[in-house]
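User: Please predict structures.

Assistant: First:
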Amino acid sequence: MPDGLKTFRIGDVEIDFPVLLAPLAGYSDLPYRQLCRDLGAPFCATEMMLDRCLLVKPRKPQYISRSDDDDHPIAGQIVGNEPETMAAAAELLDRRGFDVIDLNFACPVRKALRRRRGGHLMSDPRLAVKITRAVIAAAGPRPVTLKLRRSFDESNREHDEFWQIAEGAFDAGAAAICLHARSVEVKYSGPADWEFIASVKQRFGEKTIIGSGDIMTAPDAVDMFARTGVDAVSVARGSLGNPWFFRQWRDLADGREMYVPTLAEQKEVIADHFRRTELFYGERRATKNMRKFGIKYARMHPTPKKLRMAFVAVKNARDWFAVLDNFYT
């Protein structure tokens, strides 16, 4: 591991290890964040939250914005396209005690793009910077970060929009940028451009740059640090089905053999994950939510296809624990 990367800062928030749990739509809820923290994650982010939804009085509990005393430091990630509404959402997250406000200008999902949110902002630098300035003014003492992509489409070889947004954001007082090194257009296909991440870190020097893209294993995180010089790495898909990722990274950073959980240890953690989720949502919703996690956990199992189908078929808590008893012995 490169020297000097065991701690870093986002504004005045000190983080004791530079590998972070990224915002993961449909996955990085409070139970999963707590599980990852127990396994070594030093900093986590919420799922992407629509600014307007945060500001309305909900008829039902807003699970997506829930945090807890042991869920810190935590970033609340918001998405939207109106400076005033984004600023109001940031004020709300400040009052709720979120440590960092994160702006999503990177989401490539068609629904977000159609409504001129998320990755659409990569095609509108003027609006992106205007939103950033409004949020920084509204966020009080909370540091503000941005999630960006390399460009909006593949035809932009100079990445002009990225540089305009990044420079405007840092000039406005942004604390950090997290860069996913693909265009919005390609979503997650093809390799992430780590050379571009390295060029961004080189250009911005002392500014905090967080790398993202193609971090599927703990050795990938080590490789990104070595090749790009980033201050931290944001782990997304690589943590799904492997919340031990953060412990494995700490092992590698400290020169130890990388931890690989036994089937018995996997069973214990997966059972704990279900119990946390059931306590948070109730049995019915927990069962539905955990099916998608089960599919991810199955990738580490000796018979992934059979286990995946078994998890998909569960209808209640009893079914879930029966699957664990049948496959994790």
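Second:
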Amino acid sequence: MTAKPVTAVEASSSLPVTLADIEAAAMAIAGKIERTPLRYSRTLSEITGAQVWIKFENLQFTASYKERGALNKLLSLSNAEKAAGVVAMSAGNHAQGVAFHASRLGIPSTIVMPKGTPFVKIEHTRNFGAKVIIHGEALAEADAHARQLEKEQGLTFVHPFDDAKVIAGQGTVGLEIMEDLADFDAIVIPVGGGGLSAGIATAIKARRPAVQVYGVEPAMYPSLSAELRGEEPKVGGATIAEGIAVKKVGRLTAEILRKLMEQVIVVGEDALERAVNLFVTVEKTVAEGAGAAGLAALLEEPHLFRNRKVVLVLTGGNIDTRLLASVLTRSLVREKRITSVRIIGNDQPGLLAKVSTVIGENGGNIIEVFHNRMALDVPAKGAEFDITIETRDARHTQEIIDALEAAGFPPRTN
């Protein structure tokens, strides 16, 4: 989905958040958050065909950019509002940002999180000093409960994205990028509710209107794409990018992005998984699914960025360790470095030993063996083996398969 390009004058006027607001936020939060590095990636540039620069917001103390906006909002509260406390709803990163900085400022905080929130994000939020309430199956239900607590207890609601102070705080990412990089052609930003992209777009378009701003959404939650088309979003499903799995973008953020964003790119789960894996294996850094969405966009739509200088915002690194392990293992399967082969033969002593010998002599590592005598598609005097092997790469896997066939044990690959 493509938005109408704007001039510098248009970008700096008639919007809910201005460059001056973002510059004020930068002064307010200076020294209280990490000024994260912006680095060039030679390997990712070779893989994608673009000149790739990465803004490592996963290096914030809470491992996400979200604390920028949360802190700017908290600092804007009156003394009475601070004393009464704040409430927020979040699937994780906003929750941690609010909890950490509220605790540091002596502000009581209550965070409502939906049931599907990754355990690591719930625990971190509690450890940062917030009262955590698990409520509802989705963010909408958590939001409704948080709004109820706001009214009943006189708390200040800290919205994760649809708040001018929060948007301005997130926009400080854009200021830092422009301070560190003299020129670039495009920036690619993960989009959930739109707070980060709206803030960064406001800052960049005000100073460098020629830079193209791209948003990225998971295919299961194309909320901004639908909003820009004037349609009701059709969303739902389990995505590894739960941090941007938002049913509807904010009112303020949509107003900004409709004017300032060139295009929204929708990416599939395979691309998100590949991006998470590449950040680990190439950059030696951890990215959650949402945090890796910018790189996923380059993998899905390389023609848009080829030979251009592109900034990716790695928005966060709070991924459940079991999910990360699964993503990394699945990448080995995609690359055929882990493969399952099925061998059917006569059920006689020594058969498995012979097969194992062939695999071992050809450099394969057997991870798992399942021996099935009961399958009805196997002869009564036969046996079926499912063998999972680890190899160097796809070529090595094929060499082992060829060796098994030559030895009289033709495998079926799963």
